[in-house]
Amino acid sequence: MQEYGFVHGKGEGPLAGDGHDTLFTVSELEALSSLSTDNSAAKSLDCGERQVHREERTRHLGGRKGRPCVVCGRVFPNNAKMTIHMRTHTGEKPYGCDQCMKRFQQKGNLKIHMRIHSGERPFVCLQCNASYSDSSNLRRHMMKHRGGRKGRPCVVCGKVFPNNAKMAIHMRTHTGEKPYRCDQCMKRFRQSCNLKIHMRIHSGEKPEVCLQCNASFSDPSNLRRHIYKHTRNVVL
């Protein structure tokens, strides 16, 4: 269970408050105390203010929801992520390797490190069978196959995507997942935009209009095929 402490009153340095009780976790209080001699925590707060109330910090950080770090002001959505982050300030490394005594701030980093001792390389390039103990090393390797394009490779087919959102949509081609359903005919789709186009069949809406003959279509792909008839030699 997480332990908490309070700071009260006005003063100088990173522990300065605004005359009200301020709630901190014990690890945060220890971090603040260790930084109090040089006021480095106070210097990091926006606008030079040293108040650490959540409401004040949220206003400074553009209204982002979450709990701000009292040392650097970075916002985190929950206490678990805040606890991990605070280790960057305190230097705490609670996870130790039992073979070489190297220590880590996160459990996941220890798990990756242990593969050095076990020789395990679960991340395999599907194009050349090169294997790695760390997924980040595989991503860097995949860039060589993709001409240096940055992104995350699909673990099934190796295709690279620039972000997690596009990767999630792509993975549905492998899993068969179709989360978007028409409430009139129960047909399902992988993407919300495909459902939106499909719904025009039921509504009769045809917003895609040919500027040459005014023919209208519900699906932009049908319009492109139609325009090809006008242009013939133009590849769309």
Automatic annotation (TrEMBL):
Localization, UniProt: Nucleus
GO cellular component, as recorded: nucleus
One term of GO molecular function: zinc ion binding
Pfam families the record matches: zf-C2H2
Signal peptide extent: none
Coiled coil feature spans: none
Domain of life: Eukaryota
SMART domains listed in its UniProt record: ZnF_C2H2
Gene Ontology terms describing biological process: negative regulation of cell differentiation; negative regulation of transcription by RNA polymerase II
KW Disulfide bond (keyword) present: no
Keyword tags: Metal-binding, Nucleus, Repeat, Zinc, Zinc-finger
Residue intervals of the C2H2-type domain: 67-94, 95-122, 123-150, 152-179, 180-207, 208-231
Protein name: C2H2-type domain-containing protein
Organism: Gadus morhua (Atlantic cod)
